[in-house]
Amino acid sequence: MDLGITGKRALVCASSKGLGRGCAMALAEAGVDLVLNARGAEALEATAQEIRDTYGVEVTTVAADIATDEGRARVLEAAGQIDILVNNAGGPPPGFWTEWEREDFIKALDANMLAPIALMKALLPGMIDRGWGRVVNITSASVRSPIAQLGLSNSARAGLTGYVAGTARQVAQHGVTINNLLPGLHATDRATSLAKATADREGITIEEAARNRDAANPTGRIGKAEEFGATCAFMCSQHAGFMVGQNILLDGGAFNSTT
Q1: Total number of domains constituting the chain
Q2: I need a surface site. Which of 24, 161, 167, 253 has the fewest CB within 10 A?
Q3: Residues 75-97, buried b or exposed e (16+ Cβ, 10 A)?
Q4: Exposed, middle or buried, 187 (CB in 10 Å: 0-12/13-18/19+)?
């Protein structure tokens, strides 16, 4: 399927690895020029060069912490005119409710709620002026089904979800859509760290924790970054103009619901 976005320009945050990288790859395959951001310069440049070599699109890189004012300023200065925004940031560490203090919640909010909102506020006006734009926020399946040990993430991402619900319906008339993509567990560094935390907590090996995790999913596995990226690219396409303010769950059926 031709996604109809060849020549568009996308900012993809936290895109050197994992789900962000999967999204960047899929958009590049659709002919989209990219601005890639991540904190680690080495991995970021390696991903950018692979995309250039494979798909021949223009790729700009900015190594910066998108959760900080200074980092966002650097990214936005380099980005210029953006048609597609993919908001993404690593989740806060797991833990127990008694361990989290105010400072922990502020860090989570900065990375997983306030930074995406700041980028939307900066880039939506240009999209509205041009009469076309796409925003996809990578949040979490925990928005639909909270995960106890991820209370910091549950809180911050639920706040972003509420913001998007209202804002998406205010900008849709201008040809701009905002939607959220909710990943369950995928084969990323995050899944590895969660498996280690489970192994430590239950006194089993990481391999056993991973097998138990996979067996609990209806598909018998966890997701792939490539299939996640393909879903993101469709949500950014010309064909998704009537998808507004939605939370698209991609978790292999782990969340059991009729809605």
Answers
A1: 1
A2: 253
A3: bbeebeebbbbbbbbbbbbbeee
A4: middle
- Give the model's pLDDT for residue 26: 98
Rounded to an integer, what distance in angstroms lies between the CA atom of residue 39 and that of residue 61? 11
Residue with tokens 């020549």: 7
pLDDT of amino acid 107:
95
What digits encode the pLDDT tens for the residues 120-171?
999 999 999 999 999 999 999 999 998 888 899 999 999 999 999 999 999 9
Q: What is the value of pTM for the model shown?
A: 0.93
Whether the CA torsion 189, 191, 197, 199 is positive or negative: it is negative
Which amino acid appears at position 188 of this protein? T
Integer Cα distance of 101 and 82 in angstroms? 37
- Residues 6+ positions from 207 with CB-CB distance below 8 Å: none
Residue 194 lies inside a defined structural domain of this protein? no
Task: Yes or no: say if 111 and 67 are a contact pair by the CB < 8 Å rule.
Answer: yes
Report whether 86 contacts 25 (CB < 8 A): no
In a domain, 207, yes or no: no
Q: How far apart are the first and last CA of the chain?
A: 28
Structure tokens at 220: 């018998």
Whether 193 is covered by a domain: the verdict is no
Mind listing the pLDDT tens digit for each residue in 5-48?
A: 999 999 999 999 999 999 999 999 999 999 999 999 999 999 99
Q: Which domain holds residue 79?
A: 9-184+223-248
164: domain CATH number? 3.40.50.720
More confident site: 87 or 98: 87
